[in-house]
């Protein structure tokens, strides 16, 4: 019988590297939403993650590879947050909860942990294909999530309304964050919720 000897030191090094990698991606996912792709530098990310600049290439082949993973993480976090809000309420309230949560003042004020479509949308067309691919997956996932809350989910109309709903949500949040008038930001969000929820619930 062959006995396979495990190397505890090797396992510990692997675990430590995986933990460091996860920390870098987590920091980068927040940074791109806070500062944009163009404002996110490798040196700053590594410093915030508590690692040396030189250690970067032990984890990523390039800055673009890091940004692609960061975009994927940001999208996953955003989708999970929205899905969690939907799951926490009865089905008949899910659509209102989804839209209301997305267009809440809390989300307006939480760019660093919020929807990457709003924070990064204008920069994304100029990014590497991997970054755009992550964004495209997230858009499709959000469209599907919105459509599944519609009473006529599965019908062509539900999908089309989901396209309009997501576009309105993202555009409204972008404008609410852009203005320096809190009352106007609130009015933008409240008006969008008022228009979207009755239309979709009909």
Description:
- This protein has nine helices and no strands.
- The protein is 69% helix and 0% strand.
- By secondary structure, it is mainly alpha-helical.
- It starts with 7 loop residues before the first helix and ends with a helix.
- Helix 3 (63-87) runs parallel beside helix 7.
- The longest helix has 28 residues, at 8-35.
- The protein has a single domain (8-201), classed as Tetracycline Repressor, domain 2 (Orthogonal Bundle).
Topology:
Layout: H1 8-35, H2 42-48, H3 63-87, H4 94-102, H5 105-108, H6 116-120, H7 129-147, H8 156-178, H9 182-201
Helix pairs in contact: 1-3, 3-4, 3-7, 4-9, 7-8, 8-9
Structural class: mainly alpha
Q: CATH H level: which superfamily?
A: Tetracycline Repressor, domain 2
> How large a portion of the residues is in β-strands, by DSSP E?
under 5%
Biggest beta-sheet profile: none
Q: Helix content range of the residues, please? A: 55-70%
> What is the chain-wise order of helices and strands?
HHHHHHHHH
Individual helix count: 9
Mean pLDDT: 90
How many structural domains? 1
Query: What distance lies between the first and last C-alpha atoms, to the nearest angstrom?
Result: 69 Å
Highest-level CATH class: Mainly Alpha
The rounded Rg comes to 20 Å
Oligomer: single chain
